[in-house]
Amino acid sequence: MLKLSAMAQIICIANQKGGVGKTTTAVNLSAALAVCEKRTLLVDCDPQANATTGVGLDKSHLIKTLYHGMIGDASADAVIVDSQIEFLKVMPARVELIGFDVEMMDRPDREQALRHLLKPVVKAFDYIIIDCPPSLSLLTVNAMTAADALLIPLQCEFYALEGLSQLVQTYQRIKSGLNPKLKIAGVLLTMFDRRTNLSHQVAEDAESHFKTLVYKTMIPRNVRLGEAPSFGQPILLYDAMSVGATSYFALAKEILAANHTGHA
Ligand code: ADP
Ligand code: MG
Which atom of ligand 1 is nearest to the CA of 191? Predict the structure, then answer.
């Protein structure tokens, strides 16, 4: 029986670029919050299902997935499964989620499927973290419509800020229509390499665009972070002493502190 509390804070991790660290952040931030004994739900909203395998779930053993929940064929409780970490539960994805856009085409509430699915469980968690696909498709729109806050990972590479205006436009459209309470939780610099000028340049550009919205915590490029998914383990299990693990733990602390003071 899940303990009820105040409503979870729902954070959606989005950037339509692939390979910027969305899934790595979703998996490891969720795990770090859970290690801090926050009841956390990781929602895998990407048909590639990298977050699902990244926390060690075997997709072939799943009965119902997020797809079934979002099209109305399964309740949230029927989709949620346990993970290897005590306070972390998962709404897993599988490849059938690709069919979601087509399945929902004629439904008037197609942007609100995830919001409706999560509604009965928001009091059972402290945090709900949603991993988005690398697009601004209906799945990402659902994630932003269900969320309280948007976390934008920015990879410290060339063109890091390119395409961000489309993301921000989508955010503004959803905020002015379906989800007025949506805010930007923060911009997270990922794969930061302090030895390169480029990383520092991206950090400067991000700060001049997003000002105080840029998280103080930066996620460095760290080989162990890249290895962990192939072992089906969040970094805190795979190598708790790595700089990747301490960085995601620091991000969790920063988010917890921001919520505590009501800024987040
Ligand atoms: P996205 O979900 O945005 O497509 P991922 O989180 O899957 O991006 O990251 C893309 C690739 O980069 C993955 O192989 C991942 O393991 C790796 N990666 C992500 N963050 C880091 C990091 N900080 N250091 C090293 N490798 C990383
Ligand atoms: Mg991903």
Answer: 23
Ligand 1 neighbourhood includes 235 CB (under 6 angstroms): no
Model confidence over 205-219: pLDDT tens digits?
Answer: 999 999 999 999 999
Q: Encoding tokens for residue 211?
A: 């000002």
Nearest alpha-carbon partner for 26 in 175, 127, 176, 135: 127
To test the pocket of ligand 1, the residue of 22, 23, 24 to mutate (highest count of ligand atoms within 8 Å of its CB) is 24
Residues 6+ apart with CB under 8 A from 142: 45, 70, 110, 111, 112, 113, 114, 115
Instruction: Write down the pTM of the prediction.
Output: 0.96
Residues in the chain predicted with pLDDT less than 50, given as ranges, are: 1, 263-264
* Distance separating alpha carbons of residues 86 and 130, to the nearest angstrom: 19
Q: Which pair of tokens denotes residue 45? A: 């909203």
Domain extents in the chain: 9-260
- Check pocket membership of 177 for ligand 1, CB cut-off 6 A: no
CATH class of residue range 9-260:
alpha beta
> Interface pTM (ipTM) of the complex?
0.99
Q: Are 16 and 139 within 8 A, CB to CB? A: no
At 225, list the tokens.
Answer: 């972070």
pLDDT on residue 79: 98
Q: Is 242 in the pocket of ligand 1 (CB under 6 A)?
A: no
